[in-house]
Every structure is written in structure tokens, then in C-alpha cells.
Automatic annotation (TrEMBL):
Molecular function GO labels: hydrolase activity, acting on carbon-nitrogen (but not peptide) bonds
Annotated ranges, domain NodB homology: 85-156
Family (UniProt): Belongs to the polysaccharide deacetylase family.
The protein's name in its UniProt record: Chitooligosaccharide deacetylase
């Protein structure tokens, strides 16, 4: 390896960034969720607008169009999620009496106000999810341009959300500070721990599992629904087992409407929610509820 790789100026003991203080898992204070829950489940449902002709700057969103313009096959599948799949998820959450956090693109907020009203009236929470899937936050943006992306996103909502998830969960080194400047309460981009982490500016980083995302497991890795369900249950069981060592932990689980909302897959979500409801020590909370509970214990 070229020795220049070892000359990174921020390399230090513990971690090589300063967004939050470093500590080992065994040294963090134990958390306690409501109702004595040992494991908090936070369902995050992205509602995303995919342009037919994405710029792909600096990279294409993982769910972006695949074939040359106009890629109507993939476009209509994504649109199916926002028109059909999301309502199957909403029906399933209602049947299980579970509330979730819907991460909504600004373009979706502008184009589908009745959908946002339906989500809010059903008792769920709305977080901002960037302007669109073609508005990626990255290091080559100027601070002014990235700040404008956040401002323009928040402008699309009639009520300013407290939470944020970046398109493709990609950030620049400035994103955390800019979100803090805009008085956002929590961010759903990272999964650095199995408990929330507070940045030095006061933003709560709520873990959002990429490895357990339905998009990752069912779409990218082409696993079956049975395997996905088993992995969800196994993850919950292990966090319960670890409670005596680490206190209450959490799982942030992404449910993608055009993936888990398909008619041949929704049974797996129904069974997962049933498992959560009958398993002692497991409770589902929105990201905002987790943020407030975490802040009260810092």
C-alpha cells in the first residue's frame, strides 16, 4: 500500500472524524425505552420520486432508471410503490397498530399532497428525504448549493419535518452541520451503532440498517421473503439476548413500497409485525419518538 494513504490528516485514536465523541460500546450509558422495551423497532418507509432522465451526478441512486431513456419499465415499478405498494404497507401497519416514519422526497410532497395527508391522518410521522433521488448530497457541491438543496426540500412541505434522510443516504462532510443549522432534530442516514448517537451540534443520528433493508436483501441480493423474515426475527432475538450487557437497543428497518409492497411479499411484513407484537420486550416507535426518548436520557 502506498504510504500516502497513512497520511490522512484526521487519522487519530478511536475514529477519524469529529461529528461526535468516540466511545467503545461497553462504555456507553444504558438506555431504557418506554414500556420496558428491550428492543425498539423503527420502521422507515421511503417515498421517492425517480426522474426518467437522471443526471447521475455524482452517481446514480441505487433505485434509479436502468435502461436508456425512457426507462418506463423501471419508472412505473417505482410509481407502483407510491400508488399501490405504500397503501398495502399502511393497511398492514394499521392492522398491527404500529406507527412508522415516512421519509418523503420534496418532489413527492409537492406532487402527492393527498398521500401525505393520508399518512399524517393515520398517525404516522413524516421526515424529509431530500429533493429527489437525483439530488444527491456530495462533497463536490459548494456549501451554498448544498444548503439550497436542503432549503428547497423543506420548502416543499406545508409543515416542516423534524427529521431528515439524504437521497441514497449519501452526505458531504458538511451535511450534518447544515442539518443542524436548519434545526433538524434527527437524521436517518447512518448505522454506526445499535443505539442513537448525538452529534456535537445536537443532531440525533438514529441507526438505519442498510444490511437489513428490504431493498438490499430482497432486491439487490435477490433473497426470498422467507429468508428476509428469518433475518428480521434473528436480529430482534439477538438484541433481546444482548439487553443484559448493553441495555435497550434498536433496529431501524427500511420498507420500500415498490419492494415489500408487492402482493407476493406483503405476507412477510404482516408476519414480522405479528412477531413484534407478540414478542415480550419489543416495541415499535417512530424516529421522532426515539429521538425524544434518547434526548431525555443523555
Amino acid at each position: 500500500m502506498d504510504k500516502s494513504y497513512l497520511a490522512y490528516p484526521n487519522r487519530a485514536y478511536g475514529q477519524d472524524h469529529e461529528f461526535y465523541d468516540w466511545r467503545m460500546a461497553k462504555d456507553r450509558p444504558s438506555l431504557a425505552w418506554e414500556n420496558g422495551a428491550k428492543v425498539a423497532i423503527c420502521f422507515i418507509i421511503p417515498l421517492e420520486f425517480f426522474p426518467l432522465n437522471p443526471s447521475g451526478t455524482p452517481f446514480k441512486h441505487p433505485g434509479a432508471m436502468v435502461t436508456p431513456y425512457p426507462d418506463l419499465r423501471h419508472f412505473t415499478v417505482r410509481d407502483y410503490g407510491n400508488r399501490i405498494g405504500v397503501y398495502r404497507i399502511l393497511d398492514t401497519l394499521k392492522a398491527a397498530n404500529i406507527s412508522a416514519t415516512f421519509a418523503v422526497n420534496g418532489e413527492i410532497a409537492k406532487r402527492y399532497p393527498p398521500l401525505l395527508n393520508f399518512i399524517r391522518n393515520a398517525g404516522h410521522e413524516v421526515a424529509a428525504h431530500g429533493l429527489s433521488t437525483d439530488a444527491i448530497h456530495h462533497e463536490a457541491l459548494t456549501p451554498t448549493d448544498e444548503n439550497s438543496l436542503i432549503e428547497n426540500t423543506l420548502y416543499c412541505f406545508d409543515t416542516k419535518p423534524d427529521g431528515w434522510m439524504s437521497p441514497a443516504r449519501n452526505q458531504s462532510s458538511r451535511t450534518i452541520d447544515l442539518l443542524t443549522d436548519h434545526e433538524m432534530h434527527y437524521c436517518l442516514d447512518w448505522e454506526a451503532d445499535s443505539v442513537p448517537v448525538a452529534t456535537k451540534g445536537g443532531l440525533t443520528l438514529i441507526p438505519n440498517s442498510y444490511e437489513l433493508s428490504d431493498f438490499t436483501l430482497l432486491h439487490m441480493r435477490k433473497q426470498g421473503e422467507e429468508a428476509w423474515l428469518k433475518q428480521m426475527k434473528s436480529s430482534i432475538d439477538l438484541l433481546i439476548e444482548e439487553h443484559s450487557r448493553f441495555g435497550s437497543q434498536m433496529l431501524g428497518l427500511t420498507l420500500t413500497p415498490y419492494v415489500i409492497g408487492q402482493p407476493f411479499r406483503i405476507w412477510a411484513l404482516r408476519e414480522l409485525l405479528s412477531h413484534i407484537n407478540v414478542t415480550e420486550g419489543v416495541e415499535a416507535f417512530t424516529a421522532g419518538e426515539i429521538d425524544k426518548k434518547f434526548r431525555s436520557q443523555k
